Amino acid sequence: MKIKKIISVIILCSMALTLLYACSPDDGNNNNNNIENNGGGGSGNPVENLSAVANTNFTSQEIADAVIAVFTAEEIPNTGLRNFFSGADENSDNYLEPERTGLLIYSRLQLVEEFDYLEDFSLYVPAGQSIFEVSVLKVKEDQKNNINAVKTILETRMGRVSLGELQDYAPLEEPIFHNMKVIIVENYVIFLATTDNRRAENIIAGMIYGDASVSLANAGENTETSEEAPDQIIQNPLPVNMDNVVDVESEILFDFDELLNIDFSGQTQVEAGARRTNLPRVDVRHHFHNTHFIIGGKCEPGAMIRVTGGLHEIYTGSNHGNFLVDVPFAAEGTTILRLTAEAPGKEPSEEIAFVVSPRRDVSYFEDFGIFGVVVGYNHMTFFADNLDGYTGEDLISDTEIAGITTRISNRITQLRDRGCNAEIIYLLVPNTSRLWAEDMPVRYTMNTGTTLLDQWSGAVRAGGGTVLDLTDLMRNHKNDEYKIWHYTDSHWTEYGAYLGYNALMNYIARSFPDAAPRPRSDFEFYNTEIDIGDIAVRIGVDHSALKEYTTFANFNFDPPHFNSDFNKGHLGRDLYNRNNSYIIHARVAHQHTTNSNMPGNLPSVYVMRDSFEGPLHAFYTDRFSTATFAGMWDYNFNAAEIARLNPDYVLYVISERNIRNVMFN
Length: 665
Description:
- The chain has 665 residues and is an alpha+beta fold.
- It has three domains: 2-227, no CATH class; 251-362, Immunoglobulins (Immunoglobulin-like, Sandwich), CATH 2.60.40.10; 388-517 and 557-663, no CATH class.
- 26% of the residues lie in helices and 21% in strands.
């Protein structure tokens, strides 16, 4: 094939290019108007020794294929890549529907007008939670005056990548984040987010300019990746660089050396005759937004925390003696915040005063985008991606609802036409803001009418799909002895996952009785105090700075493990380091298959999922004869592949906040 020949030639050329480039002098003074660069890597000029005439006869697909070809399978994340390109057959996985271009660029369904300026395009985008990407847009000759507008849409896509999201799901790709860039080469606009952009740029230069002395690479760009073993890095997730945490200029009116010596470990009840609550210990105290101050630490178990002096008084519960509050204060002048603790049957503690002033340089919430933290009441925290669902700002049109119904119906038809009778099931985990609406900050107003969840569920069912909505189940169990949710992590606990497991397998047992859930006695749930979870880095603290009392599980049986070199030495079900509630997603995120170690007539399943599937994983793998898992966050519905496997069920495990990610995939 023509493309394979091009790739073979380019690979050979790139070896020569790399050697010549390494030996060539670099005075840092070269420049050329035909190539522009924007991104996080390097600081030198992007062009060196340009002398050849440009060849712009290559299609975007040929350039993208050539770049991808120089990276080994080990260098491309195991979540895989999806390739969309212009001219692809409408029934193929490579076809990008025009209205779905907006999902890639803006995370919403809409046309992207700038695609009208293109002669063709090729997008190698991550299939799962990854950022490795090579996207090439070729601008028409008569539209070159709009090339900067085309560049802007790729910059918008690049800007959607969140460091917080990456640290959660693909921590080894952080070097890619710091070096990703958008460049213009002649009439090509190219987004590079690879493990070695220098190599990619050499390939592009060789194709377009055909000159071994040409390089698009930035002088001094560092694209080296960590040589540490993957598990060494993941065992200690989300290190906080305190040099990047904004210094607190506010005055704290108390001797915190005294507070740090307070021990609350033995204070489980009110001492006889005691009148005043012990002074709380403050471990976290800094600006969270320019006009918000967070305070966290330890108090007597069962104590309430009161903070006055802000925009409104805060009176909130603690979590077995752990507390965290976010206090909005006036945008002008100086404010004195006063904090006290009040244990049952006791007088309030002495006051701790914080003198705070507005700032202009604090951006924790903004920096983490949809993973920004909303600190609620009673030690409950939420991610910002809950907000649109809570306020009702995510509602869709009747046309979009009809489109979901049509898409589900078409998927079922595609499977049936291929001889596969699988039922499509969505196991839907509700947002914490829906379950704990009473703990949302008062500055947000809850939508009490129709929700996106209502719209989407109705559309899926109308198309022939099944939705198992866990909202009522979770709400009925949120005050159980065992917690269904980690209060300082965005995921459900293993007890919450157990409840979801029962709901799912009881439904499937209607058709496959042998797949009924295991008895409660096979699971031992327990509560313990640990360090906080995935909110830590997003509020500017280390995991150990605050504590939470939460729930985990022991299994009285051996769940099927999945085969993976990455997971050797780990229990297949153990997603935590048990020092905190932070989930090590990489232990289950990759594509894999499990086989049941149980007898009986068991169904088979093909699973697509977000990170909520992690805590559920070990509960249900032995309930399916074969369970095939797509990479986490890969929602691509490949009808041919699913039909080849011919499962009894196609199962989506998703949280409410990810509905938009599966609506049109």
